[in-house]
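#random but structural
TW: two for the price of one
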Amino acid sequence: MLSIDAAVLGANTYKEVKEARKEQQEWHQAEEKISMAIRGGIDESNSRQENQIRKHQEQAILDWLTPIDYAPQQSDFISRRQTGTGQWLLNSTEFQSWLTTKTDVVMSRNFRFLLAHLQLDSLIGKRSPKAVRTALKSLPSGSNAYDDAYKDAMIRMEGQLLDQKDLAWQVLSWITCAKRPLTMVELQHALAIELGESSLDEDNLPQIDDMVTVCAGLVTVDEESEIIRLVHYTTQEYFERTKETWFPNLEAEITKICVTYLSHLIRLKVESARTTRSLKNGNSQTNFTTTPHLIGVTTRAKLIHLSQKSTACFLETNAQLQASIQALLVKKSHYLFESQYSRVYPTGLEGIHVAAHFGIEKTVQHLLGTYISDEKDGSGRTPLSHAAENGHGAVAKLLLANNADINLKDGRYGQTPLSWAAYNGQEPMVKLLVANNADIELKCTRYDWTPLLWAVVNRREAVVKFLLESGAEFNLQSASDRTPLSWAAGEGHEAIFKPLLEKGADIDIKDNNNRAPLSYAAEYGHAAILKLLLVDSAEVNLKCTRMGRTPLVWAADNGHEPIVKLLLLQNAEVDIEDTHDRTALSHAAERGHEVIVKLLLEYNAKVNVEDGSERTPLLYAVRNNHEAVVKLLLEKHAKIDLKYTTHEQTALSLAEMKEDEAVIKLLQIHKKEECLVC
């Protein structure tokens, strides 16, 4: 039976809700009230309407019944409803009386609002009071009420016109199968695919309203996120349990759609993807907003559920393979030396590489009859390399059992499977490869990075610890002579830096720019790491080769006040000049780092020191309109008449040229004071 819980959703606190639910006597009154409302509405409809009410008009009556935010919006929504949409119910006396309470919610005894929504949906289309009364008596209740309501909705869905029924099955199939929520546009495109057609016809896109309506109340749309989803988590649970009953051929059908979708990519994507310009910019000749999403959601599932023969057929169809995989596996370069916008497009992929990438063990096993275990793609990568990067242990074991070379380097940067696994943080894979005698010291060809360094740079803490425990050499230097400790210091990876330090990593090893870890920590402002290095007596005045900067100069230039303090406390020399004869004070003044300028002056930094361009700290501060810094320097007797010879400019003439009134005033006052002293 239907009933009205008169207080639950109007209550402001959980305590009020509990107390309201104890008032069991209201249930009987509520049951009678809603029954009268429905009967009154039906009687009035018989007298006022000569034709059958169209289904979408009837549905409009119940649109306010939603499983989300129901109580706060129900009265407002109904009060704004347009005329002509089910007035036979809205005009009934009992319904209008119930509406004025503003807090009552249609419910089924002992169950939630969602159940009432589904049950009221089941009443739509009943043509007489008797039919409604009969339906009311058969409404599900008890512990299986949800399942019964969902089953009833599916049966109603099955009874629709053929096109409506097919659309409903497709909508529910995709939503149920998807590994993440689908947007309305994504689902529209998926449903618009026509098997055997070479392109997607936008005239075949189904309407959102139709997609929702045909699903008998089981599907809803989140307007803000534009996600189309099942109405409730219990709906998902229901279909997870009964998927084989309702959708016995689900994976096969989606597979067919995926294959067709990928074939569209051949025509629309692969030609542009083959040009270098398009690859670098990620351009496309058509709108592929949904393409990567649909492929990402379904490709792996498709490969898993195809038969081995079908999988092999698809993967060995090179045009389809290249079109789909290039779009799917494109990723930003992980190499620090390339532009952050550069992209790495996989080329020359064979079926076995794709199967290994996705971890499809049975398919890899099948394809080993066609390919060798060390088959190389366009970048010289083997199936083991792809499996290692993505952590597919079962595939890696299979390939190793088939004599895959565990230390084979690829052709782009000379990475081994172990370095790929370390780079991507695949700890179980790293352990598997090391257990199978992978060389943990083998450097990549181009930059001489070891697996340990790949893990350090990419913040793979667990992998770093395991490799150290496995005896990885922590002082090995890369092509630029940087050690893992140097990289950890520069990147600020304290959780990685400490284990390296505890293992005895050398803090004084210098790279080819004569920079030690302390220099990088100072440049990038990593105070915690700097403290650890200072405790171990790291050299504080070491100058790098190319710019001649000390750690103090790096920190002052970049505005790292805590670093400057720490270095000064450790007796860092304040006036050491870089290759351009500039001191820490000169850089801080130019950047306008007021607090750092003040600190350096407190440690007696030279105020009037000229650099190689004959500029003083004061000239730099004036040039960049740093009034507060100018004031500090003047207080320490900075000379305002020193000329910048190239342009014959003093601090005052430079300020006048820049029309900086505040600085001009400061300089003029200071000049008058100097004259008075004279």
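TW: number two ↓
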Amino acid sequence: MSSPLSFGDVLALVQVALEIYSQIKDGPELLKNLGEEMKSLKLFILSVKELLDEETNSILARLRPMLTEQARADVKNLERSALPIKDLFRKYNNDQGPFGVTFRFKTATDIYFALGYNKETLNEMRDTVARAKQRLMHTLQLMGIFGTNALLSKVGNGGPLPRVVPKPPVKQENGTKRIAPSIIYVDPHNLGRSRVAEAYTKLVREWTVRTGGISPVSFVHSAGFFAEDRSDCNDVLKRLDLQSTMEFSRLNRPPLEVAMAALFENKYFNYPYKAQIRQAMMAQRSRGVTKNIFKVDYILVFTRREYNNLLQLRKALSGLYGATAVPEGKGHIIHLGQYLAQGKTVEILDAMKDNNGNLSRENWNKTVGQIKTAVKGFLKEELNWKQPERFAKQS
């Protein structure tokens, strides 16, 4: 049986892009970054293709058509994301400017590219490829080909894709397969509450899938509204007329150890994936929001401040970039506190420090309890998540 997923077109396109790139000598630094992205993309495609070819009989024969079609669409999206980079390489290598004009000297080409392609444009090309790769990984993960943490540790670091024993696809009651939504948690600096919520959602996802249920989410992430790390819209954020603000900071720090301990150091989810998820979370560093945040299905916040601030950001990005930044039907902003009390919204605040001004495990235990209750409420009410039986057998 041949694989229903074909990588021929995108692989050929990337190969052409790399052949053109190899002819470029002393190009701008941003052009070199795009070249490295194409090399990484080629390795990614070859790795995925190898895995799919080897596992065809045991996995793909059991896939539902709906999920296979989604994977095909993801591969096509990967091709579309790489096309502008290939065209950019070709134009630069041919000293070509607007309307087919050819420059006589490389100096003129460099000047045109400096003026016609700003840093943000080229970075967006690279980020678009990264998002396309990520989307395909998530779809393949739903197929049961990869484990969550094997993806984080192998693919995320540019290594070869892992070989694991695949789980069969999970059926819905009507025999079809759905694509679960994507979510992101946002707090001020991406150190505490948002990281706890992200980690807990990943625990719930593993628990659900390993007990034979349907994953409630396809992609879960977190960010800090006032964190400058890895944000591509700091300039937009700092121009917002916010009613409630904090100092923007560049911390590049892992999650708070006490917050992670409050979530992980207990008797719940005592399976190997628990330690793996914790390790993966602690390896990550704080990051800010990006211009693409409203392309995620749900944006979950803990206080009214972040709720109002994100409304402001959505308005600003919509004014700057239109529907490309704020697609219809995406970017629903939800206050998690509405799942804690009937008929009212509770602020889920950062855990208070103790009387000596130190981080308090006891206080973080309470905050983590609130977050867990709110996240489960959201998953059940909005995403129709079915909580596994308490003693359900896990794979």
